């Protein structure tokens, strides 16, 4: 049994491309960065804590538990000048983020954590993608905010949505920017006996 520790519809859709069956078990954790915590260390810690929280939630649920359950968690952060840009809490917040990203290159760091139930086999991976934005006008930022797309997105944009019009160039993993790097996910899952394409049938 594979368990996805995320409520993100984007991660669910991506995982659904490479895994036939899995169970979604989202968790809420404190996502406050530690003082002086580097962006990559923060993103990896978030994935680890999400996996651990999902394992704890799964273990405390009523019903039969599969001892061979595998848990996968991920976290994505938009980083510019070493600063992690979270999800905007207001238009002003989104405006500040998008104005800062406008016409510049930034990094999208996505981490993965895959663990078994006993947590004696835990693997992590971190994928960094460089994204270059074109210049964005204040009118575009206001119009984009009114679509509601930026509301729950790190860095106040969604590359798979209308926010993709801001992206001039990308170097790295597109799926990682969306929320789940497919190549790295498949590689880690294979080490837990989950072989994506080999186990699928389209007949």
UniProtKB/TrEMBL annotation:
Catalytic activity field: UTP + H2O = UMP + diphosphate + H(+); dTTP + H2O = dTMP + diphosphate + H(+)
Report the sequence similarity comment from the record.
Belongs to the Maf family. YhdE subfamily.
GO CC terms, sorted: cytoplasm
Instruction: Give yes or no: UniProt keyword GTP-binding.
Output: no
InterPro entries hit by this protein: ITPase-like_fam, Maf-like
> Where along the sequence do coiled-coil regions lie?
none
Q: Site annotated as Important for substrate specificity: where?
A: 10, 76, 160
State the organism's lineage.
Bacteria, Pseudomonadati, Pseudomonadota, Gammaproteobacteria, Oceanospirillales
Active-site feature positions: 75
Name of the molecule in the record? dTTP/UTP pyrophosphatase
Name the coenzymes or cofactors required: a divalent metal cation
Q: Which superkingdom, per the lineage?
A: Bacteria
One BP annotation, GO: nucleotide metabolic process
GO MF: dTTP diphosphatase activity; UTP diphosphatase activity
Location(s) in or outside the cell: Cytoplasm
Q: Which UniProt keywords apply?
A: Cytoplasm, Hydrolase, Nucleotide metabolism
EC numbers on record = 3.6.1.9
Q: Which Pfam families match?
A: Maf
Q: What top-level class of enzyme does the UniProt entry assign?
A: hydrolase
Q: What does this protein do?
A: Nucleoside triphosphate pyrophosphatase that hydrolyzes dTTP and UTP. May have a dual role in cell division arrest and in preventing the incorporation of modified nucleotides into cellular nucleic acids.
Question: Is Ribonucleoprotein one of the keywords UniProt gives this record?
Answer: no
